[in-house]
């Protein structure tokens, strides 16, 4: 279940999620808060590395388009 790719993905997406969550709380924007929480939590539910990285990239793209709304 735990290999280098899943640990790296959890760290990378968790760190970016924490930043998005903090940014959203500071500016009181609900979309970055929700996406940040999703980025921090979702790695616990996926063990397939392809699916883990795919969902993470999809959430990052979503964050990119909804960070200031």
Break the fold down into its secondary structure elements and pairings.
Blueprint: H1 4-27, H2 30-41, H3 49-65
Secondary-structure class: mainly alpha
The radius of gyration is: 12 Å
Q: What's the average pLDDT? A: 92
Unreliable stretches covering 5 or more consecutive residues: none
Strand content: under 5%
Shape: elongated
State the total count of DSSP E strands. Answer: 0
Largest sheet: none
How many domains make up the 3D coordinates?
A: 1
Helix segment tally: 3
Q: Output the helix-strand order.
A: HHH
Please estimate the helix content: over 70%
The end-to-end distance, rounded to whole angstroms, is 37 Å
Protein name: Amino acid transport protein
Keywords: Membrane, Transmembrane, Transmembrane helix
Transmembrane segments: 6-24, 51-67
Organism: Luteolibacter luteus
Protein described:
It is built from 3 helices and no strands. It is mostly helical. It has one domain. Helix 1 runs antiparallel to helix 2. The chain is elongated. It starts with a helix and ends with a helix. 17% of the residues are buried. The model has no long low-confidence stretch (mean pLDDT 92).
Key terms:
single chain, mainly alpha, 0% strand, 69 residues
Briefly characterize the structure.
By secondary structure, the chain is mainly α. The protein has helices at 4-27, 30-41, 49-65.
């Amino acid at each position: 279940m735990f290999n280098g790719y899943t640990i790296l993905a959890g760290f990378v997406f968790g760190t970016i999620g924490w930043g998005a969550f903090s940014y959203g709380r500071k500016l009181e924007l609900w979309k970055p808060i929700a996406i940040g929480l999703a980025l921090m939590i979702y790695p616990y539910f996926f063990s397939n590395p392809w699916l883990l990285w795919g969902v993470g990239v999809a959430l990052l793209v979503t964050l990119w388009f909804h960070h200031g709304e």
